[in-house]
């Protein structure tokens, strides 16, 4: 959330999530470019296609990051499993869950923007408000955890 909610960040939550994962890997001497990351996307390429498989995969990743063409649950799982296996990461289910949550945040924002624009027009910067609210998530979470454990 910290990266996603930065005012100058124009990335989707899903894109931000994967950028943070790449940064963590980089800190552990595992360098993964977007091209390498895209190579784990399963694609059934049609015959006679001019685009190479690697280019097709890279274009799909760019669309995922821009939330233009979201992965199916099956395709996302295949992608995360293949990626996790390549870096010997045993917790692919956690990466999958993070990815799904990030996609969910993105989908919610799109829905909220549509609702606000229908009701009030496009004058309101819903994304800026959204990010301001989400930037408080850590404090909100800590407060409620503290309240929960005090009540026990």
Notes on the protein architecture:
This protein has 152 residues and is mostly helical. It is built from 7 helices and no strands. The chain has helices spanning 13-27, 34-38, 53-66, 73-86, 92-120, 126-134, 137-150. Helix 1 (13-27) packs antiparallel against helix 5 and helix 4 (73-86) packs across helix 5. The longest helix has 29 residues, at 92-120. The two termini are 29 Å apart.
SSE order and pairing:
Layout: H1 13-27, H2 34-38, H3 53-66, H4 73-86, H5 92-120, H6 126-134, H7 137-150
Helix pairs in contact: 1-5, 4-5
Number of H/I helices: 7
Order of helices and strands: HHHHHHH
Helix content: 55-70%
**How big a fraction of the residues is strand?**
under 5%
Q: Radius of gyration, Cα only, in angstroms?
A: 18 Å
Tertiary shape: globular
Q: How would you sum up the major sheet?
A: none
Secondary structure tally: strands? 0
Mean pLDDT: 90
| Unreliable stretches | none
Class per helix and strand makeup = mainly alpha
Query: Terminal Cα separation, in Å?
Result: 29 Å
Descriptive labels:
66% helix; mainly alpha; 152 residues
Task: Summarize this entry quickly.
This protein has seven helices and no strands. The protein has helices at residues 13-27, 34-38, 53-66, 73-86, 92-120, 126-134, 137-150.
């Amino acid at each position: 959330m910290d990266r996603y909610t930065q005012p100058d960040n124009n990335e989707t939550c899903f894109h931000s999530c994967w950028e943070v994962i790449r940064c963590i890997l980089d800190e552990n001497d595992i360098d993964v470019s977007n091209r390498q990351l895209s190579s784990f996307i399963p694609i059934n390429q049609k015959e006679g296609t001019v685009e190479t498989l690697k280019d097709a995969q890279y274009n799909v990743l760019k669309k995922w990051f821009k939330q233009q063409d979201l992965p199916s649950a099956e395709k996302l799982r295949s992608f995360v499993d293949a990626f996790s296996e390549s870096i010997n990461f045993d917790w692919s289910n956690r990466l999958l869950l993070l990815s799904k949550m990030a996609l969910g945040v993105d989908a919610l924002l799109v829905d909220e923007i549509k609702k606000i624009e229908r009701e009030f027009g496009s004058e309101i910067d819903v994304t800026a408000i959204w990010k301001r609210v989400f930037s408080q998530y850590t404090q909100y979470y800590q407060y409620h955890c503290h309240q929960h454990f005090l009540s026990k």
